[in-house]
Amino acid sequence: xxxxxxxxxxxxxxxxxxxxxxxxxxxxxxxxxxxxxxxxxxxxxxxxxxxxxxxxxxxxxxxxxxxxxxxxxxxxxxxxxxxxxxxxxxxxxxxxxxxxxxxxxxxxxxxxxxxxxxxxxxxxxxxxxxxxxxxxxxxxxxxxxxxxxxxxxxxxxxxxxxxxxxxxxxxxxxxxxxxxxxxxxxxxxxxxxxxxxxxxxxxxxxxxxxxxxxxxxxxxxxxxxxxxxxxxxxxxxxxxxxxxxxxxxxxxxxxxxxxxxxxxxxxxxxxxxxxxxxxxxxxxxxxxxxxxxxxxxxxxxxxxxxxxxxxxxxxxxxxxxxxxxxxxxxxxxxxxxxxxxxxxxxxxxxxxxxxxxxxxxxxxxx
Length: 366
Prior knowledge:
Layout: E1 2-3, H1 16-29, E2 38-39, H2 48-58, E3 66-70, H3 71-79, H4 100-105, E4 115-127, E5 146-147, H5 156-164, H6 180-195, H7 209-217, E6 223-227, H8 228-234, E7 239-242, E8 253-262, H9 270-281, H10 283-293, E9 296-297, H11 311-320, E10 322-323, H12 328-346, H13 352-364
Parallel strand pairs: 1-2, 5-6, 8-10
Antiparallel strand pairs: 3-8, 4-6, 4-7, 4-8, 4-9
């Protein structure tokens, strides 16, 4: 089994000890089997995907049977034939309790090549002593300080609002586009929040959700757009989390995740490797591990075992309304123009329309 470092089955990672125990239990049920874990980085020549590709071509004997891949790597691995389709191993209807975004995650080309297990999502954290109920619309945030990762190159916070409005990312021919009108409306939401005094200009300095979470933890903000993983790691009785607000209050979330996949090897026992995957994603195991790892489960049945009664409804709400963000190559194209547009609007260098038009032109320019 090859894993990224954050899933190491040991005491160095959240949920690591739980995963180690689950692997040990699987070994106990299969006395002649030993699960060997190798950790691979997420980027660089020694990354999971690069190592799979290299070993497949020059040293197939060192390939693992099972691998954990993020969405982009799963897509690339499937396209390269590094992982095998799972249709022959999965009974019809067995994905029924997987959230819709997770089902899409597992089928990057329309064919089932992975079984999702862990997810993370964009959420709003807020102080319950200021907001007893979560603000569902941007206009409901009228007091306190809101921080968003306004400096992130991916522009995901602005993109969340754009997509919630129904904004397209491609025209009928498949060309990447941004709708100027809808992007203008999304930018206006953040301009309004800034002019009302709840969204400080300093929010442009925060380049990721870890930065906004730190500001929130230090009590320098009343609300923050961050990740569910951050919240689950440190939630307390005066902090709650909910879906990121939208202009209309229509629930919407961006979530991404990880899947187990079977590597395309000459192993004589692919069914046994699949049995290991199915053991790990069984609701009881997945419930215990995701809660310990501060992650969201990809299937609804796993939430039944979450012991904290307040967390399961939050997780269910987010996961039920989640959709996948654009793949990395699309984000690399649209992210910088979106971030630049937000920066120009909040600093007063451009109107929402002018900034949206510039972003749209930047994306559509060959």
